[in-house]
Design a protein that fits this description.
57% of the residues lie in helices and 12% in strands. The protein is of the alpha/beta class and 448 residues long. Helix 9 links the parallel strand 5 and strand 6. Helix 7 runs antiparallel to helix 14 and helix 14 packs antiparallel against helix 15. It is elongated and about 110 Å long.
Amino acid sequence: MSDELLAVGLNHRTAPVELRERLAASGELVVQALPDMVRQLELREAMIVSTCNRVEVYAVGPSWSRAGGRVLDYLGRVHRVEGEVLRSHAFIRGHDDAARHIFRVAASLESMVVGEPQILGQVKDAFDLARRTGTIGAVLDRCLTLAFRGAKRVRTETEIARGAASVPSVAVDLARSIFGELRGCGALLVGAGEMAQQSGVYLKAAGVTELAVVNRSQARGEALVRELGGRYADWGQLELELRRADIVISSTGASQPVIDRPLMKRVMRARRGAPVFLVDIAVPRDVDPEVTRLGQVFLYNIDDLQGIVHDNMRSRVAEAERAADLVEEEVAGFVAWHRSRAIGPLIRELQQHAKAIVEAELERASGKLATLDKTQLKAVQRVVHGVVQKMLHRPMTQLRAASSAQQRVSYDLVEACEVLFELRGEQREREAAAEEAVPAAAGVESSS
């Protein structure tokens, strides 16, 4: 098949934060990598979802299993990660399993905190970026559009998102479990992005009254302070603010740690042994793990939050099951479309292949048929065409049945027909190209 769906990458379930942060890619890097990856790996379509919890590639191309390995090799070369290490922590899924994974990610069923709302926006941003880059075609367009619709149904038809804990909320819960009452505690946000904003909201709700924001961009830092209250400090005041804070939540986009051991050593000397609670929710990490060698410094990163996440999720098991059922309904719709997209053109190609053979053989026998009159010649032609059509009838019936039924075997049948009849998929390539020239998911409700 020329348009097999693929999902490949690693996430918080398969890989530690140390490896995930090595593969994390900014929007600028994704814009550069996508066309290069599509061209080098001979993919038809591709998009990259890069968040603090996952780096995943959703793609369309020939042979999903081979393409998956090549995508991992490509990521390893670009990010200088050993191939063996990368493969040992990665997953590769194709066909229905790939679609199911994509739909579940968009619906937040694969998130560290099930039901958190951020992932849907992140997947939408990744999809829009790939579309602007020109690497989205008919299959990913339909897949992601239906995945967004499924995510919307999960939010509106289940209770999974009601009071759902995000990573920042879990961080504040952890602070509360350590300090108890947070009133009277000083808190510092390092960074002023979305994660910092959410952390600030949860900190204020938990009773923190003294809140400071340190950020490299003064405009963004001051804007966050206006929204949350508290005070803004220039980046150069980071050490001073660390001395004042009992709770520090860091979420910058820096490529190197912004809080290291020498800095914290000076901070702790000034604090005279007063404990400090650091939560690093950035990928790559903002805080050097070496700071934990200092007394009274308590550091937690994203992976450390997993235990609290599990506790919070116990009460949502039933809702998660309901959400999974809704997602399966949407997956089934996409799978049926994808199968029909492969099998309809295949049947037409089989018919054209058979017709070409019949016409070639009749042409070869034209000399022997020259003594026949027009009526007799037409009768011979009808018989030959009829025999071929009857021979193809059952295979084509089985192909149609496999396409309409929820059976994965339809993919295998397509591949078998390609081999048995030596089909090259040229007609399907032309039809796919024509389909990609118009919006692929026309009429599908937007979930924005």
